Amino acid sequence: MRFIRNKISPALILGFIGSGDIIILEMQENEFVFESVEQIETEFELNVFIFDYREHGYVNFVFNNCSVTEYRAKKFSHEYKAKAGNIISGTASDFRMSLKHITEVSRMLLNGIERDGEKSEVIEWLSGYLNIYPFGKDTEFPEDYTGQILKCINSNQTINAYRRYRDIMSKVELAFSLSNNDQYRQSLECGFDIVTREGLKRMELVEHGIFSKPFSRIYIGNEFCHNLFPTRPVFGRLLEKAFDQGLNVTVMYSYMVDNSVNEIKEMLSYADNLCKANDTTIELCINDWGVMEIIKENCTRITPVLGRLLNKRKKDSRIDYMWGGQKYKDKFAENNLNTEFFKKFLNDMGIYRFEFESHKMLNKIPEGRHSLHFPFYQQNTSVYCPLFAECTNFNRIKQELVMKCPQYCTEFYFKYPGHIHIMGRGNTIMGIEGSLLSDFRILEQYVKDGVDRLVFTAI
Question: Which fold, 3-130?
Fold first, then answer.
């Protein structure tokens, strides 16, 4: 089996001579062609690392007594053809098989999983170690918005499960998220109780054990789009209404765009003064460090919490098909919040609460008291809105910064294949994850780890 670099991912085979790395251009059992920045001695020892799909890691082979047979000087490097020496680490048969596997797998990725209607021997071998992505299902789209969400959420539960959820929730604060203009308007016209009840009805969750206790906190705003934050009058009325009803308040704000700095300063100053007038405090989700600086300078009644855009982590609904995803799943559960120096940095800035999301991979919760959003989670956010581009230019690629938004996201959304459980809402791709609603053990573990607040978002 002959390896040719331009027909394979370069990361699948790595080479080293001494402490320097080389680029292997071609390789077979007895000879190889490589490129090096440094000139190489006529005889040398070669270290080769070949990716093993079974273990999702590299297998090391060492050849000694390798000798150069051809040399060509290039403008910025040196190209050599060399004869392979004896294998002193690994076996010749394993080396041949490894070369065969990576060459065949790369050909599969370039030409498609199936060739001539039949799977190759290596693909049959590979299927035993990998969960092959079902490309055929990428043409199957959900029929409607609500149906897609309900399909991902299993609201059925036994009496025992209901009781377990109820017992767990006795230790947890329950919050409801208001994140678009329709919800702001309905809350002012009908009241928070009506909005939360109708939201649970639409998602068929009224009888679920998580909601056996009333909502005691309201989240107001949007962490992913600057155009979905309420106007100053609406924001003030929502705060006053929440204060009057004895509800705790967390304000959500997204990234900061350059021409909105003064507006944000005024909004935060207004909220701070309103808190002083009502002798209370509110929280603010920080998703832009510039907003944190504004709070430090001007606000005394606003407590910062780390928002979801700054709680960066791998979130992908296709994790089950990611090669090596299961092996390294524990690594995906961590991020910089699991390091002491970054937690100290946040604590020094007055940030002690972090906002998390329930998604396909469990979060490793750091020490403290934190919040968990469900059943939607953010996968990707753009300052430029692809939905606005599609609706105005009929081309989602022709994006621009939207400052006066007609709120197309209240009527339209992007569909994605139903089996990956995501949808495009405005400028954000959102995943739908219902495990927290179907398995009380997941919630129980999160509570043990330090989650003391659940934040529910309805459709």
Answer: Thrombin, subunit H (2.40.10)
